[in-house]
């Protein structure tokens, strides 16, 4: 069917665009090609989500080889939602990139940046689309290798160190994952996720399966920066070019969380997890990550690093839903996965606008800019309110469902952790707002008297995400509705 081929185009289009962007002359042409492709992809992703939102599953057999022998792209509501957020963030980031990239990256590197960006988009969409666990590894490597290159393009020397650190940690994570895949293949003889889900229950008692599960979980815990395996993330987000930080912060960890959901609830099933210490360990690490990283964010002196530590804490919230091991918990994870991409994308775009005007993201260089750049400042305020979880924002919906999931399990400790984490978020969001608006001296106001608002091409994508934070705080049909539909397929017992 033509619909199945269109789903394949989600991955093929950015893959083809990457070498085209690389050979084009530096300037606006590679940007134009990448932007056109990203908007084509988001249209396909939206179409795909509409097709599977009623419970339909799209299956595409690559090369005409029927699964489980051949590679299968298998799309349901869960990965269609992830594909939409990845492609949507890319489509908004690229228009923003035109001004930002010119300011931060030498012109001779522009074509290569857009080529790497397209490869990263290919890898992330491939991870979301595929139903084959080894093919998932291939796309994981495509997205990771391109991410290392993108981070290294930062204008400070620390960007190279951050990229190298990420490379080491990412390679360890990928190695753990592929060892786990190899062990599963040795025991089952299949790499197809749906086929694995059928064959594994009779093998749950084998130590090899437990070992495979442990390797896969540790591998992806490294990729999604779950505390305490998060050490690569703060430097990567701080020293990468702003455009790269926006894209990776809003997409890469979300795709990794989706894979964890797929592995825990579909491939292995939570029945298996309950017979291991994994669920308690998940909850413990989430609690430590939420509280520890939120405290750490409060004391940061760089706004990008502050938001980076906030991201590690927010990953803890997403993994809480998995650790709780319930239908409501999985729904909360998917909802927060979507909403956090909106809020963190908007916040990093706003910080990028400040960097565009003053050349620094350090808080000591930002006093008074809130008055000089009111639209950017308003974006930070609204994005910050969503991050805290104030009613009327997307962040509130996420935390509401997490609290409901914890209450359902009568886990009052988790309810308390969510509330304390929100209070800590008030502290570090206020720190940025205070510096931007309330800490300006006469000298600093005079210094920034000529600072103008960010260019319109940066403000429009930023405010699309800001308004989305408000819209999805009231209309939850797409987020909660799709998440509930997705969980019915992720967890067969939910039906």
Element pattern in H and E: HHEEHHHHHHHHHHHHHHHHHHH
Largest sheet geometry:
2 strands, antiparallel
Molecular shape: globular
- Count of DSSP-assigned helices: 21
Structural class: mainly alpha
**Spatial gap, N to C terminus:** 28 Å
Helix content: over 70%
Write down the Rg: 21 Å
User: Strand share of the residues?
Assistant: under 5%
- Annotation, overall tally of beta strands: 2
Question: Which consecutive residue ranges, at least 5 long each, have pLDDT under 50?
Answer: none
Strand order of the largest sheet: 1-2
Mean pLDDT: 84
Explain what this protein looks like in three dimensions:
- It is a single chain.
- The chain has a domain at 277-495.
- The two termini are 28 Å apart.
- The chain has a two-stranded antiparallel ribbon with strand order 1-2.
- The radius of gyration is 21 Å and the shape is globular.
- With 495 residues, the protein is mostly helical.
- Helix 9 (233-239) packs across helix 13.
- It has 21 helices and two strands.
- The mean pLDDT is 84.
